[in-house]
Amino acid sequence: MTNHIHVFLSHGLESGPDSTKVTTLKAEAETFAGVTAIAVDHRSTNDPVTRMQQMRAAIDESGARPENVILAGSSMGGWVCAQTSADTPVLGCFLLAPALNMPDYPGSSPAIRAGHTQIIHGWHDDVVLPMPVIELARDQDLPLLVLPDGHRLQDSLPRVVTEFRRFMNDCLSD
User: Fold this and answer.
1) Which of 9, 71, 106, 148 has the most CB atoms around its CB within 10 Å?
2) What percent of the chain stands above pLDDT 90?
C-alpha cells in the first residue's frame, strides 16, 4: 500500500464515539499498517444533515483524499456514511444497520459511490426495518449480509469484526 488510508467511523443517534462497535472497529482498523482511524463525535446534534457536515469537516481536516477514505457507520452513522459517499466517491463504505427510509432523513436511498461496499443488517431490526436496506442493496447491486440479530447487532459483534477485517483487506488490496 503506497497511500495513507483514513477510516472515519460514525456512530448512531443514541450512541457516541466511545461505543462498543465504534471502538472495536477503530481498534481493528488501526491493526493495519498505514491506516489512521478517526471516530467522529456527533453527540452535539441529532440532525442527520449536520452530522453529515461534521463528517465532511473531519475528512477535510485530516487532509485525506477521497480515494483513500473508508467510511464506517452504524444506524444514523450508516446513513451519514452512505450519503457522504453518494456526494463524494470514496474507497470504501462499511454500513451497519444503516438508517435508510427514515422519516426526517433526506435522501432515504443514497446512491452509494464507493470502490468497496459492505452492508450488514439484522433480520430482527425493529428500528430500521430490513426491507428498505435489502431493496437498496438489490437496486445498487451491493453486498449485503443479514444476520439473526437486532438493530444494535450486539450478538453478532465477532462476526461484524471478522467482516470488517475482510472488508479492510479488500480495500487495501487496491
Assistant:
1) 71
2) 90
